[in-house]
């Protein structure tokens, strides 16, 4: 681990934040999660990490210039069974800016479970606007503090159809081999 990453981890913990290491087949991604801003979402994410849920999952949806999404599909692109959905915390003031981490969900604003995405661009259109069906947005829960070059490479990975998805699936699997709380 580089000195810069070690310093970022130390600072994150000093500020009361949670640091997660996603050990991928391309190298580590370090996430700093903000429990003061998204307490339920961070507790939910940590519970999935501590139960080894993310181990062996893939980044199954990659759209260059937008985001990389993972945390819910195994290597066969089959959806893993999750716990109950959580309330959307997108009204926390955090924005979907480059290298922020947000909860993925369905069209129901309060449907996030285990899947998350890393924004690779400024995705302000995903930010909270109002507490309406179309205005809720996607809850940012943290940021990438290490492995930005890996996330950039992932965002440019060749994609195509795979499993139940007609497009946007990386041709070469992008695997979360292990997730740990540091």
Task: Summarize the topology.
Elements: H1 3-14, E1 18-24, E2 27-33, H2 39-50, E3 57-63, E4 67-73, E5 100-103, E6 116-119, E7 140-146, H3 148-155, E8 159-162, E9 165-170, E10 175-181
Antiparallel strand pairs: 1-2, 1-10, 2-7, 3-4, 3-10, 4-6, 5-6, 5-7, 8-9
Concise account of the structure shown:
The protein is of the alpha+beta class. 18% of the residues lie in helices and 33% in strands. The model has no long low-confidence stretch (mean pLDDT 97).
Structural overview:
This protein is an alpha+beta fold. It has one domain: Cyclophilin-like (Cyclophilin), CATH 2.40.100. The protein contains three helices and ten strands, in the order αββαβββββαβββ. The chain has helices at residues 3-14, 39-50, 148-155; strands at residues 18-24, 27-33, 57-63, 67-73, 100-103, 116-119, 140-146, 159-162, 165-170, 175-181. The strands form two sheets. The chain has an eight-stranded antiparallel barrel. The protein has a two-stranded antiparallel sheet with strand order 8-9. The mean pLDDT is 97.
Poorly predicted runs are: none
Classified by CATH, the class is Mainly Beta
- What's the CATH superfamily, by name? Cyclophilin-like
CATH topology: Cyclophilin
Average pLDDT over all residues: 97
The end-to-end span amounts to 13 Å
Individual helix count: 3
The strand order across the widest sheet is 1-2-7-5-6-4-3-10
Radius of gyration: 15 Å
Strand content: 25-35%
What is the element string, with H for helices and E for strands?
A: HEEHEEEEEHEEE
Task: Profile the largest sheet.
Answer: 8 strands, antiparallel, barrel
Tell me the structural class. Answer: alpha+beta
Shape category: globular
Q: What is the count of structural domains? A: 1
Percent helix range: 10-25%
Strands, total number? 10
The CATH architecture category equals Beta Barrel
């Amino acid at each position: 681990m580089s000195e810069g990453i070690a310093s970022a981890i130390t600072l994150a913990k000093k500020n009361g934040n949670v640091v997660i290491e996603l050990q991928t087949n391309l190298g580590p991604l370090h996430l700093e999660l903000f429990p003061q801003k998204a307490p339920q979402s961070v507790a939910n994410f940590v519970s999935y990490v501590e139960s080894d849920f993310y181990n062996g999952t893939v980044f199954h949806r990659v759209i260059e210039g937008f985001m990389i999404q993972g945390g819910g599909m195994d290597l066969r692109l089959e959806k893993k069974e999750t716990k109950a959905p959580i309330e959307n915390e997108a009204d926390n003031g955090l924005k979907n800016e480059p290298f922020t981490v947000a909860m993925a969900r369905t069209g129901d604003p309060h449907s996030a479970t285990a899947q998350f995405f890393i924004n690779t661009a400024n995705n302000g259109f995903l930010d909270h606007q109002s507490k309406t069906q179309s205005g809720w947005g996607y809850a940012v829960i943290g940021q990438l503090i290490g492995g930005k070059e890996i996330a950039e490479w992932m965002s440019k990975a060749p994609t195509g159809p795979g499993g139940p998805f007609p497009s946007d699936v990386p041709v070469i699997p992008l695997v979360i081999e292990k997730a740990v709380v540091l």
